[in-house]
Amino acid sequence: MTDKKDRRPKGRFVVTPDSLKAGEHVAELVGKDFDPEENRKLADSYHERMFEALKEVLDLPEGSIEFISGSYRKTTVFSAEGENSLQIILDETFDFWTYGLTVYTCLPVFYQLSDNDWDQLMADLGDMLLLGTSAELHETARQGLFPYFGKYAESLEFTHLLSRAIMAFILFHEVSHCQLDHLKQEAASEMEHDADLQAAQHFYELVASLQRGEKSDFFIRPDQHAAPLVALEILHLHEYWLTLNGIERSEEQIHPPAADRKRHIRAYMFDNLNAESRGFYEAFMEAMEGIRERVQVFYGEENG
Question: Which residues fall within 8 angstroms of residue 288, CB to CB, at 6 or more apart?
């Protein structure tokens, strides 16, 4: 949660001929049809459709919370008090960062990686983690991610949907700050824990609405119901990597440790997990253990 004075985006990312070619290539790899004009329209309204879907699930009063996305040149999402409504601001780089980290951390879940694969993953993962504090590295991180689309095409649909589920939880967290009247109070760790728990509850409201067959721009797979825990585990990895590399988080990014945040919602989450999502979460945690060990060796040696 952060309150910032200048909440106007400096611009927006736009669809380019190169990005359409990249999308067409990915669609070909996974055996999907690709309509360039239709995909341009979908990309241009991507966040607006996501915001509307979340507002419908929560039945938010019209005009109570305004969602804004754009390029702020900071990898962040935050809530703030606007002139006429509360605001939730999503930097588009943050969404890409979330997606990239989801792709990288899920690879060991689905694939047996060779030593060379692991070394490349550690290098590219480091670039993506650094993007969390250096938004100007967006293009470097994007170029590093693209080869994975071809090499690991079978997992693309899963990781895309999982990153969307993670983003839903993160946005629900900011919505919860607004609903719990946190923006008028001095920041405290307990507020973050309360917002996490309410966000997890909202997340399951979304899951329940989808299970009832309600129309939505979201689709959350049965094995992805642990997305809030996965989100906090990825944040935990980011914190560990920053510490290992001696990088301090900016003051506006400081929250309670992600491990503490996860403990506060774990019991509630596990009460609501089905067998499929428990199975994926256990496999993900095993993969993350391997990633953390490799990160410690790879970046420990670099900084030694």
Answer: 105, 233, 237
For residue 251, how many C-alpha atoms fall within 13 Å in the half-sphere facing its CB? 3
User: Residues 119, 99: contact at Cβ < 8 Å?
Assistant: no
Both tokens of 237, joined, read 């990895």
User: What's the residue count for the chain?
Assistant: 304
Picking from 127, 134, 149, 186, the residue whose alpha carbon sits closest to that of residue 21 is: 149
Query: Residue 80 and residue 101: Cα distance in Å, rounded?
Result: 26
Cα 115 to Cα 187: distance, rounded to the nearest angstrom: 44
Range 94-108 average pLDDT: 98
pLDDT of res. 278: 97
For the stretch 30-82, pLDDT in tens is: 788 999 999 989 889 999 999 999 999 999 998 899 999 999 888 999 999 98
Report pTM.
0.93
Distance from C-alpha of 79 to C-alpha of 89, rounded to nearest angstrom: 6
8 A C-beta contact, residue 224 and residue 161: yes
Q: Is 9 left (phi over 0), alpha (psi -120 to 50) or beta?
A: beta
- H or E segment and range at residue 65: strand 65-70
What tokens appear for 186 in the block? 């001095």
How far is residue 65's CA from residue 57's CA, in Å, rounded to a whole number? 14
